[in-house]
Amino acid sequence: MIKRRNKRAQGLSTNAIILLILGVFILAIMILGFMIGWSPLKNLMNPTNVDSLIEDCQTVCGLNQKYSFCSAERTLRVNEENFEVETSCAVLSGVSDFSKYKIQKCPSIECELSCEDIVIEGKKGVKSSEGKYDVSSLANNLENNEKCFVE
Fold first, then answer.
1. Beta strands per DSSP E along 18-115
2. Taking the domains of the chain in order of start, what are their residue ranges?
3. Which residues contact residue 16 at a Cβ distance below 8 angstroms, ignoring those fewer than 6 apart?
4. How many CB atoms lie within 10 A of CB 76?
5. What is the pLDDT of residues 70-80, one digit of tens each?
6. pTM of the shown model
């Protein structure tokens, strides 16, 4: 006697079900991203990093790493304020616009930066009477009443 297998009883495999659920999840995220924008999702992926940046700047100061403190660029990200800036620890600790983030100056390192060496968001400092960020306190090549600003 020949046994016949019941073909109608076959269902989806476990792998197919998992892939189907994963596909629906990714589709839902994409729909949300296009409907409400990607910035709320970006905040989940790149959280605020003020505390880790404070620790990083204190570490390079403690190790007396002049280049890392004065010139190496770091990104300060504050999602609650929708604020992100890329600059050095020296600028973050020495410019009044960033004082609320409590990044400490390094007493053991003298940066000796000229106005043109100071960079915020890829823009260099220029000798001027106005601009977005006043970095005059960090520039060592200014004459009597000159000011240094970064746009």
1. 74-78, 83-87
2. 13-43, 47-150
3. none
4. 20
5. 999 998 988 77
6. 0.67
